[in-house]
């Protein structure tokens, strides 16, 4: 059975003091047995503090990115082993901001996915089309290409460590959300595509999150769709009440 997951992507927000404050609120206000796996992704500098603060709670601390190499002359980068060494077990890869601002191609992302899996990290793999792709009705092709070129090289066994996050770029941080029907249509397409490329068992068991302007007032109707298994939340994850309302939307 696939799991419901709500993950907060804090992006480049919150210094140490702000991180401690938000973690404190989350820890106090989270219901005892949430209906979803709950994750937060603070900046690298605050991961250790966050992990230590939340380790006795159901909230998992995850990373926003990592480098594909084991170690070496890559100034400014962080490896999978470094993340593991401070207790981090999950990493977000392929976020559209990484693709757009840091030139992460499908090829680089395939290397990152492989490196994460080799290090027994679970991967939240993000992908999704730009507005022009949707307008020209190329969005299904584009999404299939992103999946094929970065993810379909993995073994069947590794799918247990994959979570997908469909994030249409036009809906990220814009206040514009895909309609629940648009999300469902794409999620069903993705699941069918995985069933064709691998098998139905894998397709049925992988969690597919939706990301892009999910808020407390639209989360329930998006999460209610059959093939939507939760969300990757940006802006609304920076306020504990909003994030937890989204967590409680199942
Ligand atoms: P948003 O960001 O919720 O602010 O649109 C989503 C994301 O970037 O994952």
Word description of this protein:
- The protein has 250 residues and is α/β, with parallel strands linked by helices.
- The chain is 40% helix and 14% strand.
- It has an eight-stranded parallel beta sheet with strand order 3-2-1-8-7-6-5-4.
- Helix 5 (106-118) crosses helix 7.
- The longest helix has 18 residues, at 180-197.
- The chain binds 2-phosphoglycolic acid.
In short:
This protein has 11 helices and 8 strands. It is α/β, with parallel strands linked by helices and about 250 residues long.
Give the key terms.
14% strand, 250 residues, eight-stranded parallel beta sheet, binds 2-phosphoglycolic acid, 11 helices, globular, alpha/beta
Bound molecules: 2-phosphoglycolic acid
pLDDT < 50 stretches: none
Assembly of the depicted chains: single chain
Structure summary, number of beta strands: 8
Describe how the helices and strands are arranged.
Elements: E1 5-9, H1 16-29, E2 37-41, H2 47-54, E3 59-61, H3 80-85, E4 90-93, H4 96-101, H5 106-118, E5 122-127, H6 131-135, H7 139-150, E6 162-166, H8 180-197, H9 200-205, E7 208-211, H10 219-223, E8 230-233, H11 240-247
Parallel strand pairs: 1-2, 1-8, 2-3, 4-5, 5-6, 6-7, 7-8
Helix pairs in contact: 1-2, 5-7
Bound molecules: 2-phosphoglycolic acid.
The site of 2-phosphoglycolic acid has 13 residues, from strand 8.
